[in-house]
Amino acid sequence: MNKYLEDLIKLSKFDTAISMFEPKIENEKAKLATFVETAEAIKASINESYLEIDDIKSKRTKNNIHLSELKSKLEDIAKKNKDVQTEKELKALQLEEEIAKEQIEFANEEIDRLDKLAVAKEENLKELQEKLANEEEEIKDIQIAVDNAIEEINKERNVVYQDRSELLEKFDNKILTFYEKIKRWAKESAVVPVKKQACYGCFMKINDKTYAEVIKAEEIINCPHCGRILYKEDETEEA
Prior knowledge:
mainly alpha; Helix Hairpins; 2 domains; 79% helix; rod-shaped; Oxidative_Scav/Glycosyltrans; CT398_CC_hairpin; Zf-RING_7; Zinc ribbon domain-containing protein (DUF164 domain)
């Protein structure tokens, strides 16, 4: 095989490997992000629960104040009953007393309802806090695993960068410039294999003459359709 072509294949494989490291790192970070998002959602629910409990307590306080006012009103009505002089005044006081008693009954029912609701909200809050604690413990474990995985990926990446750097030290500048021009638009598929007589960059079939030249590998051959650099994998690699 042409030495320049051999170097181009190696360089292309290094660049392909390098392009895959960042997605690998992002994939590891995504594992952690899922748990962090869940934890944040639980925190939001906890904050909402606190607000709901505060609102319930505020409503209960208002009902208690209203209940106290109604009881005072009944006491006033009882005092006025002593000074009633006409049937009309008596009926008016009785109506006022009935309305006050109904309001007291409603206020007591509302306080009872709010108390039950507060208990349910407190229980739900406790469950959310326990769930958050468990989630945060899992996050700690996953953070360690993700950090270790990213560290290994970075070590692997450094090895590839080093190998690529060593290859470039002995690389022909004209060939490198030629490669970089193609890579500018073809990205990591600047150098591609030929399989079943087709370019594995554009997937177009190449003619017999070009295919024969690719098999010989004596020169650097470009795909006649897309311009990528072509090479023929050995049979083991292709399989």
